[in-house]
Design brief:
With 143 residues, this protein is mostly beta strands. It is built from 3 helices and 12 strands. The radius of gyration is 15 Å and the shape is globular. The mean pLDDT is 91.
Length: 143
């Protein structure tokens, strides 16, 4: 059964080490990037006891950069492997995380904004889709 998802949804990712990551969808992309979505991790814990209250996203390192947003395929959301447990509307600070660059172009979610100069690339989150194993690696870095 295919499940739908939207920005602000809170979902759980079972981790390989037995813990659970509590995550929130930032961008539920439906247009040109419909095979991806972005999310932040609110906590990593030992059980599924979750209170639906807003929180800051945890950071992780990828190479030389730090980030708080992960882009990946929505396949595990759609098939229910990553279970959606509620929704908290995105704060204005979290809505700003919907702005990203891809191949030198700036987007706000599905909306195209403009071309970027190469000097501007590093000023924005980069859409780089992580496979599910890389998502697990990022989660293991978060405490």
């Amino acid at each position: 059964m295919r499940k739908s998802y939207s920005e602000g949804d809170i979902f759980l990712i079972p981790m390989h080490d037995g813990r659970v990551a509590v995550c929130q969808i930032v961008c539920a992309l439906k247009g040109r990037f419909k095979k991806t979505f972005s999310f932040g991790v609110m906590s990593v814990q030992h059980d599924e006891t979750v209170s639906l209250k807003d929180g800051e996203f945890l950071a992780y390192s990828f190479g030389e950069r730090k980030s708080i947003v992960i882009f990946t395929s929505p396949a595990h959301l759609k098939d229910g492997t990553w279970r959606i447990i509620g929704n908290i509307p995105l704060t204005s600070a979290k809505k700003e995380l919907q702005i990203f660059q891809c191949a030198g172009h700036l987007y706000n979610g599905d909306e195209y904004i403009r071309n970027l100069s190469p000097a501007e690339y590093s000023q924005y989150i980069t859409l780089g889709v992580a496979g599910f194993e890389l998502v697990q690696n990022h989660l293991l870095e978060m405490e």
